[in-house]
Design a protein that fits this description.
By secondary structure, the chain is mainly β. It has a single domain, classed as Neuraminidase, CATH 2.120.10. It is 3% helix and 44% strand. The protein has one helix at residues 6-15; strands at residues 37-39, 41-47, 58-63, 69-73, 83-86, 93-97, 104-109, 116-120, 124-128, 136-139, 150-155, 161-165, 178-183, 190-197, 200-205, 212-216, 221-227, 234-242, 249-255, 261-266, 270-274, 280-285, 294-300, 306-313, 316-323. A hairpin with a 7-residue loop joins strand 9 and strand 10 (136-139). It is globular.
Length: 335
């Protein structure tokens, strides 16, 4: 795990970790009505703007085995809380994990070993216990000669990892140089499934785990991929959803039991909900007047319709709630 100064971390984050310009100012002009408008409701504040980095960006919500919600702060400086736990009954917030070197962008519990896996945009994947103990570097290697910039993560049923590599072999961030990777659950083998992608960000399996959705942060599109039987190669793929979001950018995504897609946004504190055919079903937006400018990721409680969104802006980092259109499943939870 390489070291990075606070100033460099802030510069990198502003350049685009998970499209990480979320806490920047965003337009508040009126927008036309969207189909099925709904509202995000604030639950709890989990972070404030950091003096060292000039921003906060809350990401990676996941419901843990204890029933608590875990979130990460991408721009937390060394020693500050990088993974936090929210007791959903008391709304008490506690620190789970911190270090001096990482920029954590997402979190998910592995179905294989039950550990919490964290993507570090600076080039590694970390795993810890649910309490943030026994931190291990799971993956820290170049893939086909290029250092990775891991953004979001999804597990298949056997516990193998699928990871969006937002930077890939080239810079700057907005060039179509990102990749989709598969890493075996033992961390020994990494495979490039797709390349030349415009900053791939979110990814989630379909309810039947027979397809994979991948959102492209600087392409404002979502691709649909079918993998081979082993999950080690792409059988077919196509651009499936194009988001008309103006100055905003699409970010992370999740799927529910009916196959609907929940897509977070940067530069707009809203979540877009599409069905599997690409029809926009609902826009779930933070109330006007809330000092927030992004809603980058969601988690839906498995077996329930209660959803949580990570929302950030000049006012700080927050968890908001919403009602999903269908029950959550494992691929609704984290990543």
């Amino acid at each position: 795990m390489r070291r990075l100064s606070v100033a460099a971390l802030a510069a990198l984050t502003l350049m685009g970790a998970t499209g990480c310009a979320a806490a920047a100012d965003a337009s508040t002009r009126a927008r036309p009505s969207d189909p099925g408008e709904a509202q995000l409701e604030r639950l709890v504040q989990v972070s404030s703007v950091h003096e060292a980095t000039g921003m906060t960006l809350v990401e990676g919500p996941v419901i843990g085995p204890d029933g608590d919600l875990y979130v990460v702060d991408v721009t937390a400086p060394p020693g500050a809380a990088k993974v936090m736990r929210v007791d959903l009954e008391s709304t008490e917030v506690s620190t789970v994990y911190t270090d001096d070197t990482s920029a954590i962008t997402s979190a998910q519990f592995s179905p294989h070993d039950g550990r919490l896996y964290l993507t570090d945009f600076l080039g590694t994947i970390i795993s810890t216990t649910a309490d943030g103990e026994d931190a291990r570097t799971f993956f820290d290697a170049e893939v086909e000669g290029a250092r990775i910039a891991p953004d979001d993560i999804a597990f298949d049923e056997e516990g193998h990892l699928y990871v969006t590599d937002s930077q890939g072999a080239q810079a700057p961030y907005w060039q179509a140089s990102g990749r989709l990777l598969r890493i075996d659950r033992d961390g020994a083998t990494a495979t490039v499934l797709a390349s030349e992608l415009p900053a791939p960000n979110g990814l989630a399996f379909t309810p039947g785990a027979d397809g994979l959705w991948v959102s492209q942060n600087t392409g404002n599109r979502i691709d649909f991929l079918r993998l081979d039987a082993e999950g080690t190669a792409v059988a077919t793929a196509h651009p499936a959803v194009f988001a008309s979001v103006g100055e905003a950018q699409i970010d992370s995504l999740a799927t529910d039991a009916d196959g609907n897609l929940y897509v977070g946004l940067h530069h707009r504190a809203a979540v877009l909900v599409y069905d599997a055919h690409g029809e926009l079903l609902r826009t779930i937006e933070a109330p006007a007047g809330d000092d927030v400018t992004s809603a980058t990721n969601v988690a839906i409680v498995p077996g329930e319709t209660t959803g949580y969104a990570t929302v950030s802006g000049p006012g700080g980092g927050f968890v908001y709630t919403f009602e999903a259109l269908a029950d959550g499943i494992r691929s609704s939870n984290g990543g």
